[in-house]
Design a protein that fits this description.
Length: 247
């Protein structure tokens, strides 16, 4: 890996190769399986709290915020001992640091189809709420997940457990890539991606990957919590900011 590293190397591809190497050497194909189960359990246990907030304010922005706060459920930057329930509750009361909700709503009114790039297990429970809200705009939703495990990213199994299949078709990107890695797209996903004019991207790694792609002719919206200094600097916000940004 060191021999192939250069200034043009893609962070998502490097991360993917690291995790693939770990899986190969340990013969453990799903190292974060327990954390993925914990994530879904934590998120499901908080549905009642979230539903109370949505009853008070059922605007698109509130659903967006709920989905972004779900991005906190990540065992990359946080440890297994993190009090995620308190962290999520505290963040549900915060404002978005970048808020392109108006543009997002206009795009939903204009387009007929949405490609939703899912991120982590647990987080997808909150995604389900936003996707259900998006359906109010008379669009079809396709949800893309990883083909096989990498870190705590959602695969088809977790997406079905979270109920996403009830609101849209679930497809895979064709690999176990960390975030979006264009050269690792399957031909089937390549076709769906190319034909998608409205894309909702969840999470930091998907944002990283998309910013290195040609997105001409597409409306792309990134929903994430800035969990590292580099992305915070890139977006000119404080670390741990909540973001809805049109790319």
């Amino acid at each position: 890996m060191a021999e192939n590293f250069n200034k043009n190397s893609q962070p998502n591809k490097i991360a993917t190769e690291v995790n693939q190497y770990i899986k190969q050497k340990t013969q453990c194909v799903n190292p974060y399986s327990k954390q993925k189960e914990m994530s879904n359990e934590i998120a499901l246990s908080m549905i009642d709290n979230v539903q109370e907030i949505l009853k008070t304010n059922d605007s698109l922005e509130t659903y967006v915020k709920v989905a972004i706060v779900g991005n906190i459920l990540d065992f990359g930057p946080y440890s297994i001992s993190t009090d995620f329930k308190t962290l999520i509750k505290d963040n549900l009361n915060r404002e978005l640091s970048i808020n392109d909700t108006d543009e997002f709503e206009r795009a939903l009114d204009f387009h007929d189809d949405v490609l939703y790039l899912a991120d982590n297990s647990g987080e997808i429970v909150f995604d389900r709420l936003l996707i259900e809200k998006i359906l109010d705009y008379d669009v079809n939703v396709t949800v893309a997940v990883k083909s096989s495990p990498i870190v705590n990213d959602a695969c088809t199994k977790e997406a079905v457990e979270a109920g996403l299949h009830e609101f849209g078709e679930i497809i895979t990107v064709g690999s176990d890539s960390g975030g979006i890695v264009e050269e690792m797209f399957s031909p089937e996903f390549r076709k769906v991606f190319d034909e998608s004019s409205l894309i909702v991207s969840k999470g930091l790694a998907n944002y990283e990957g998309l910013t290195e792609m040609d997105l001409a002719g597409k409306d792309v919206f990134a929903l994430l919590c800035t969990k590292c200094n580099l992305i915070s600097k890139n977006l000119s916000v404080d670390i741990n900011s909540l973001i809805l940004k049109k790319i």
